[in-house]
Amino acid sequence: MTAPVLDVRDLQVAIGTTPVVRGISFQLAPGERLGLVGESGSGKSLTALSIMGLNRDPIRVSGGQVMLGGTDLLGLSRAELDRVRGARISMIYQDPASSLNPLMTVGAQIVEAINLHDKVERGQARARAADLLGDVGVPNPRQRLDAYPHEFSGGMRQRVMIAIALACQPEVLLCDEPTTALDVTTQSLVINLIDRLCSERGVATVLITHDLGVAAGFCDNIAVMYAGQLVEQSSTGTLFANARHPYSHALMSATVDLGVDVTTALPAIAGQPPLPGTIPRGCSFRPRCPRAVEACADEPIDLLSLDGSLVRCIRPISSDPGSGTHPGTARDAAVDTPAAQERMPNA
Amino acid sequence: MQFVIKRVVISAILLVATSVLIFAILRALPGDPVAARLGTAQGVNQAMIDRLRSSAGLDRPLVSQYFSWVAGMTHGNLGRSYFTDRQVSSMILSALGPTLELTVLGVALSVLVAVPAAMAAARRPRGWLDRSITAIASAGMAFPPFVAGILLIIVFSITVHWFPARGFIPLTQDPVQNLRSMILPSISLAAGAAPLILRYLRSELVTALNSDYVRTAAGKGAPERRVMLRHALPNAALPSLTMIGLITGYTLGGSVVVEYVFGFSGLGALSVQAAFRRDYAVLQSVVLLISALFILVSLTVDLLGWWLDPRTRGHRG
Question: In chain A, what residues touch B308 (CB-CB under 8 Å)?
Fold first, then answer.
């Protein structure tokens, strides 16, 4: 494998003193598309915002490293970070309606993105902005440069956001639920646009979504998040065909398949994800997991390699859907030892 | 454009309604201007009183008095003072200068102090700097303006002799002395007004700094300074305009205390004096002028806000 462009190592984020992202690690190869999926509140957005250094009080990164090329973004000063953000790593946000400055023309906001990193002459920056606006599919880009965000539809605003994010040819693009705020017909257009532009420019992408359908079509690999941790990471095909963690398995089953009988109730995962600060010890999915046993309450449950996937489960679902568990894993043996029982609950 | 027309028409109606109201209220007040002028003078008879009444037009029906006041206004004739017999227009004109200058300088000073202070405070909400600035602002608001004025006089006029304690020197007569005489009054006015602007702008800035578009700007790599000045400040300043307009309008008529402390006769002082003398001729015109200025300032501020906000100004692109 070539050297990753983005290497997130044990990233930890806390709101005040309450941990919400509890040690996320992943690598992004050049041009790779990684999906970060999970329910709302699982820490997906916070992970992306932390990578960008865009967290606000009282949310702060409490540990880990974010390596972009050779530099740890978490160790940079604000001035150093400003030279990286928007130039080598960019982000597209959830709500395009509020993400653009209402008092500035769209052109001025794209030109700003160019000028912050590339000191080019005014006319040239404007021409580049018009090209970008054309690339993202805004009709009459030259005229539309002078329009204000409120004169654009939701989908068009998100296209503008994409133009801003790609203005300086970043190596990495983080997309935080880029289609959630858009209507269904626009969603696929925007995803296809991101898909095409990132392929053309060789931009490595992290797509945060709770829409597994979107993730399936876009991503090479998918990481499933639950309660601030990765619970499973594998290639998109493997995950959809054969999810090993009970949570990802349930998540896959919860997606609507229009081929099946829609008169039956849609399958849902029983219960609620734990709130930050009240995460149970051991496996955080344990209270909702139909396969949980006593040993699941032991700490810590590590992300283990399993047939090419990474799974955080001591009783993963077998690759053969018929047979139940993998009996007798290393974890099971430790259940009755006093040391295992005395481990502290998750702080 | 519809907004502009609507706003101008409403202002005009408001102005007419105000003039009727001022006129009616002053006539309904107890007290008689002729009696107030004569006071306890000896040898007053009914014939003298009647003569004074008719010379001031006070014996005519109220409606006719109102219309002659309005008709006079259209060519700058506001009648004569019941008390001093001076032209009301010239009394108002001489009082208008000091008040306008005091208002402009006081509000400008307030904005000049409040904007940087609000930006410094909003950078870290509830940080030590924010707490200190907010505390000083609260103290400034709680401080009565006459106390601030007197303290300023004691320190800067009596102790160190930097500025004159009292009096107004017209700008046309001596610009340097004029400015020197305006400094202390402007500061005592700003002591009350700047904290209001500061607190309002600070909370608008905190909101703006927490907005998604500010996050976008930071995500582009914009330095903190640029994020503040280019993105947060314009968005926060827009709603704060109304507040500044309100303070300006209020100061035009409400700086009586500052005018008294620093001994110059502005509109506020003139209206108080006229009220004591039951000098309706002066009072009605001064109060109307103050109201008109207030209406004009809020109209200007509303139109300015409308024009500065592309969402209301209409489509251009």
Answer: 103
The mean per-residue pLDDT over the stretch A129-140 comes to: 95
Q: A101-110, A164-173, B176-185, B307-316 — which is least confidently predicted?
A: B307-316
B282, burial (CB in 10 Å: exposed 0-12, middle 13-18, buried 19+): buried
- Helix and strand element counts for chain A (H, E): 13, 12
In a domain, A300, yes or no: yes
Assigned CATH for B99-278: 1.10.3720.10
Q: A266 and A254 in contact (C-beta within 8 Å)?
A: yes
Domain that holds residue A288: 275-342
Q: What ipTM does the predicted assembly reach?
A: 0.86
Torsion of CA B214, B215, B221, B222, to 10 degrees: 10
Please give the mean pLDDT across all residues of chain B. 88
CA nearest to B316 within chain A: A147
End-of-domain residue from the set A169, A199, A226:
A226
Q: Which residues of A touch B231 (CB under 8 A)?
A: 101, 104
Q: How far apart are CA A222 and CA B85, in angstroms?
A: 91
Do residues A221 and A291 share a domain? no
Residues of A in contact with B221 (CB under 8 A): 81-87, 116-117
d(CA B59, CA B155): 53
Q: Is B126 left (phi over 0), alpha (psi -120 to 50) or beta?
A: left
Quick one: A181 and A289 in the same domain? no
Q: Is residue A237 part of a domain?
A: no
Q: How confident is the model at residue A331 (pLDDT cuts 50, 70, 90)?
A: very low
* Chain A interface includes B218 (CB < 8 A): yes
Tell me: the pLDDT tens digits for A48-98? Answer: 999 999 999 889 999 999 999 889 999 999 999 999 999 999 999 999 999
- Looking at the fold, whether A221 and A96 belong to one and the same domain comes out as yes
- Name which of B219, B235, B309 is nearest A91 (Cβ-Cβ): B219
For the ranges A322-331, B181-190, B271-280, which has the lowest average pLDDT?
A322-331
- Supply the CATH number for residue A58's domain: 3.40.50.300
C-alpha A100/C-alpha A68 separation (Å) is 26
What pLDDT does A343 receive? 39
A327 and A179 in a common domain: no
